């Protein structure tokens, strides 16, 4: 198992290199000159002399491959340069915003799991009955509603009308509820349908028939055997949805004024703050790959078939 984990870690290297190269070239090939963006954000008059000076300072006068190698070597040292807007080191600022984004992302995943688990199980147990139809309809509506519309709706109902939760900001658990719920509801439909389908499949397995024939209580059959096997594919999907949650947090953070990387990234996009953009993309990609690695490790730990398959 240790060798399989090492192989997965080694496979991360070419992926990160490819993402870094594509991102770097995409930013460099934009029509806006980074030197011009730097001068504009620094409120310095844009002249030919100033542009030449900034290009030399930022290394933009060198060949493109040299710029990439220099940036990549700095990234290995966690040195992504300084923000054009704040003039502070990008990595330090990103680390200041990262905890809030991770808190929002993982709390939304946990919340989506907690909501989907009983709904998916009950939908399978009461297949084609009223609860099943109602839960599926509600899930479809939640999946079809854009995050920003859902966020504003929750703010209007639970903050402005009922006063249960704060409107925006980050100052305690109450501030976390509405943003997490907004981000979670988009995944509830997927998780519910997947859990419903996997539960129905498990209910028709021979081991369920044998357990019932032995007189084991239905509650134990569902809770101890069926649920354990039905949840495994859901956990895999949750791990793969980390990237979706991180990208969705950009919208949610701006709706609720949540001080995370999403708001920081949007400000960088509008300001053409290229060091921040490059750092954000590479950092999010790394987080997604690490989460997928952890999911692989989880599968190898609980399913011997995965270990045997990976060994060949």
Report on the architecture of this protein.
With 312 residues, the chain is mainly α. The protein has two domains: 31-77, no CATH class; 98-274, MetI-like fold (Orthogonal Bundle), CATH 1.10.3720.10. It has helices spanning 2-28, 34-41, 48-58, 64-76, 90-125, 130-144, 147-161, 173-203, 206-213, 218-240, 242-255, 261-271, 274-302, 304-311. Helix 5 packs across helix 11 (242-255). The relative contact order is 0.14.
Task: Provide a concise account of the structure shown.
This protein has 14 helices and no strands. It is mainly alpha-helical and 312 residues long.
**Helix/strand-derived class?**
mainly alpha
Helix tally? 14
The description of the largest β-sheet is: none
- What is the gyration radius calculated from CA atoms? 24 Å
CATH class of the largest domain: Mainly Alpha
CATH architecture call of the largest domain: Orthogonal Bundle
Membrane topology: Multi-pass membrane protein
Domain ABC transmembrane type-1: 98-295
Protein name: Nickel import system permease protein NikB
GO molecular function: dipeptide transmembrane transporter activity; nickel cation transmembrane transporter activity
Notable traits:
312 residues, mainly alpha, MetI-like fold, 2 domains, 14 helices, 80% helix
List the helices and strands and how they pair.
Layout: H1 2-28, H2 34-41, H3 48-58, H4 64-76, H5 90-125, H6 130-144, H7 147-161, H8 173-203, H9 206-213, H10 218-240, H11 242-255, H12 261-271, H13 274-302, H14 304-311
Helix pairs in contact: 1-13, 2-3, 5-6, 5-8, 5-11, 6-8, 7-8, 7-11, 8-10, 8-11, 10-13, 11-12, 12-13, 13-14
């Amino acid at each position: 198992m240790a060798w399989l984990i090492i192989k997965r870690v080694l496979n991360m290297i070419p992926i990160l290199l490819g993402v870094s190269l594509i991102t770097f070239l995409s930013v460099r090939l934009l029509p806006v000159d980074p030197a011009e963006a730097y001068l504009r954000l620094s409120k310095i008059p844009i002249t030919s002399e100033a542009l030449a000076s900034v290009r030399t300072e930022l290394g933009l006068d060198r060949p493109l491959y040299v710029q990439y190698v220099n940036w990549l070597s700095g990234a290995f040292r966690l040195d992504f340069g300084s923000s054009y807007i704040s003039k502070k080191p990008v990595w330090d600022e990103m680390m200041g915003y990262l905890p809030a984004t991770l808190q929002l992302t993982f709390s939304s995943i946990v919340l989506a799991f907690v909501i989907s688990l009983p709904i998916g199980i009950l939908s399978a147990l009461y297949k084609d009955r009223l609860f099943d139809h109602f839960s599926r309809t509600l899930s479809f509506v939640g999946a079809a509603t854009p995050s920003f519309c859902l966020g504003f709706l929750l703010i209007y109902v639970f903050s402005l009308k009922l006063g249960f939760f704060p409107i925006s900001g980050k100052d305690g658990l109450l501030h976390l509820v509405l943003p997490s719920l907004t981000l979670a509801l988009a995944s509830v439909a997927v998780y519910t349908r997947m859990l419903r389908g996997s539960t129905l499949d498990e209910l028709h397995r021979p081991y369920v028939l044998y357990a019932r024939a032995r007189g084991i209580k239905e509650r134990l059959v569902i809770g101890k055997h069926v649920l354990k096997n039905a949840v495994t594919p859901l956990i895999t999907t949750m791990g793969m949805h980390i990237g979706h949650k991180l990208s969705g947090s950009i919208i949610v953070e701006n709706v609720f004024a949540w001080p995370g990387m999403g708001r920081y990234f949007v400000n960088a996009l509008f300001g053409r703050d290229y060091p921040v953009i490059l750092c954000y993309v590479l950092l999010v990609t790394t987080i997604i790959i690490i989460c997928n690695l952890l999911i692989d490790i989880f599968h190898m730990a609980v399913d011997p078939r995965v270990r045997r398959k990976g060994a060949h």
